[in-house]
UniProtKB/TrEMBL annotation:
InterPro entries given in the database record: L-lactate/malate_DH, Lactate/malate_DH_C, Lactate/malate_DH_N, Lactate_DH/Glyco_Ohase_4_C, Malate_DH_type2, NAD(P)-bd_dom_sf
Enzyme Commission number(s) from the entry: 1.1.1.37
Protein's name in the database: Malate dehydrogenase
Role according to the record: Catalyzes the reversible oxidation of malate to oxaloacetate.
Domain Lactate/malate dehydrogenase N-terminal as annotated: residue spans: 5-154
Gene Ontology molecular function: L-malate dehydrogenase (NAD+) activity
UniProtKB keywords: NAD, Oxidoreductase, Tricarboxylic acid cycle
Organism of origin: Mesopusillimonas faecipullorum
Residues the record lists as binding substrate: 94, 100, 133, 164
Gene3D superfamilies named among the record's database cross-references: Lactate dehydrogenase/glycoside hydrolase, family 4, C-terminal (3.90.110.10), NAD(P)-binding Rossmann-like Domain (3.40.50.720)
Residues noted as binding NAD(+) in the record, renumbered to the chain: 11-17, 107, 114, 131-133
Catalyzed reactions: (S)-malate + NAD(+) = oxaloacetate + NADH + H(+)
Length: 328
């Protein structure tokens, strides 16, 4: 059988961690023939470490044949040692009365330390997915803190937005969600993201022509997808966890195993594509093959789309400028 790969997960005792780890261990992320060693990171706090112990007991009790080892850590330098995949889920949530700048600063500290640790000890081919919010800017910070690793190894999760958009389109037009191709979400994982189905098809037929309702796009679809996270908090009293874990699995699986020519959405550092300044971590349509992603280039951007892209880009530039001094 294949040699085991190392998968680091931070925030492992949190809600997303609880929905994620069992699926990684059962082979849903990297394949049913790929043994994994889980390297789990939580904060040193006693309660978090105890909760992590409980999660590990449950992982053991699943007797997953592919689970070749489990480690619990409170230091990223140990958790990221030789890791092939790193899912950075743990982040500082926004507390009562916390300003956006405080949130950025608290997370800048976490993702600077974790980027440095990845730089020092991870596999040189490590694939990093940042889930913890603000995900795009946290990925940018980790990337900038890891100058010895290729920038392209750092990605942020836009896949939940992509999957939410697909599900809304399917419900609107009676498509099977799995038949939708060439959908994408541009920009920041935030309500400013731009879910774009202008290129989307179902069985070769244009989704836009089938729906043919620009008012629905602007007044219903985009706000519904953009505010879906808030709607789930309002309904469940907790933020989305299982759907977020599912999107993380989709993102990593497609990156590692290939999208077979299909588009998927990933937040990746720009090389200047579509006028997005270099290094901004931005949601783009990508295809993946042999462990590498490629941004789909040359798509036409109409005036409405350009306006949407400008808005989400302006937000990301603001976040980047907000952490500039913290990155020195
Ligand atoms: P929880 O609060 O349930 O769990 C987070 C866990 O991370 C906690 O156990 C905490 O102790 C741990 N943690 C905090 N700082 C850490 C550090 N420096 N190192 C290691 N562990 C650390 O949150 P959960 O619901 O699991 O959400 C986790 C993150 O995902 C949040 O930042 C959330 O905003 C973000 N989300 C991102 C999404 C995306 O699409 N990109 C969607 C879902 C989710 O809202």
């Amino acid at each position: 059988s294949k040699p085991a790969v190392r998968v680091a997960v931070t925030g492992a005792a949190g809600q997303i961690g609880y929905a994620l780890l069992f699926r990684i261990a059962s082979g849903e992320m990297l394949g049913k023939d790929q043994p994994v060693i889980l390297q789990l990171l939580e904060i040193p706090d006693e309660k978090a470490q105890n909760a992590l112990k409980g999660v590990i007991m449950e992982l053991e009790d699943c007797a997953f044949p592919l689970l070749a080892g489990i480690e619990a850590h409170s230091d990223p330098m140990q958790a990221f040692k030789d890791t092939d995949y790193a899912l950075l889920v743990g982040a500082r949530p926004r507390g009562p009365g916390m300003e956006r700048a405080d949130l950025l600063a608290a997370n800048a500290q976490i993702f600077t330390a974790q980027g440095k640790a990845l730089n020092a000890v991870a596999s040189r081919n490590v694939k990093v997915l940042v889930v913890g919010n603000p995900a795009n800017t946290n990925a940018y910070i980790a990337m900038k803190s890891a100058p010895d690793l290729p920038a392209k190894n750092f990605t942020a999760m836009l896949r939940l937005d992509h999957n939410r958009a697909a599900s809304q389109l399917a419900a609107k037009a009676g498509f099977k969600v799995g038949d939708i191709r060439k959908l994408t979400v541009w920009g920041n994982h935030s309500p400013t993201m731009y879910a774009d189905y202008r290129f989307a098809t179902v069985n070769g037929k244009s989704v836009q022509e089938t729906i043919n309702d620009q008012a629905w796009n602007k007044d219903v679809f985009l706000p519904t997808v953009g505010k879906r996270g808030a709607a789930i908090i309002a309904a469940r009293g907790l933020s989305s966890a299982a759907s977020a874990a599912n999107a993380a699995i989709d993102h990593m699986r497609d990156w590692a195993l290939g999208s077979k020519g299909e588009w998927v959405t990933m937040g990746v550092p720009s090389n200047g594509e579509y006028g997005v300044p270099k290094d901004i971590v931005f949601g783009f349509p990508v295809t993946t093959e042999n462990g590498e992603y490629k941004i789909v280039e040359g798509l036409e951007i109409d005036a409405f789309s350009q306006e949407c892209i400008n808005k989400t880009l302006a937000e990301l530039e603001g976040e980047r400028d907000g952490v500039k001094d913290l990155l020195k």
